[in-house]
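Deliverable D2.4 — example input (structure tokens):
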């Protein structure tokens, strides 16, 4: 029996998951059962991070140094380091809109890295 804390909502139910049947107990709602079973079968996570904003000589001085990004869907937990390595290499320049795809099929997954904040030059 594997013990987990459900991270689907702030309640944080303490789950017990049978490693053979994937039956879940301790969940207060059906989402916990899905989370618990998936966590043993194929754990996934949305990756959030920031990327470097490349210097733009013609832009104003108010350009932030980093832009927040995330994957647009949960990706396999085993791919997280590859995803972070690709994000670390990325440099962005304005203009960027919220939801713009900055890396498609990151690390060979179905997920894309998208901007979660707008980036505009203040010029
Ligand atoms: S089982 Fe349901 S109520 Fe409990 S933490 Fe998970 S999502 Fe929240």
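Example output (designed residues):
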């Amino acid at each position: 029996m594997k013990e987990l804390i459900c991270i689907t909502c702030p309640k944080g139910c303490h789950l017990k998951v049978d490693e053979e049947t994937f039956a879940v107990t301790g969940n207060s709602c059906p989402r916990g059962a899905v989370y618990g079973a998936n966590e043993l079968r194929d754990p996934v996570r949305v990756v959030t991070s920031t990327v470097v904003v490349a210097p733009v000589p013609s832009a104003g001085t108010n350009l932030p140094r980093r832009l927040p990004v995330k994957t647009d869907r949960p990706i396999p937990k085993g791919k997280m380091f590859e995803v972070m390595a690709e994000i670390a290499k990325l440099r962005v320049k304005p203009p960027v809109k919220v939801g713009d795809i900055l890396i498609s099929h990151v690390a060979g997954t179905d997920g894309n890295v998208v901007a979660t904040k707008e980036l505009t030059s203040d010029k």
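The CA atoms of residues 57 and 121 lie 10 Å apart.
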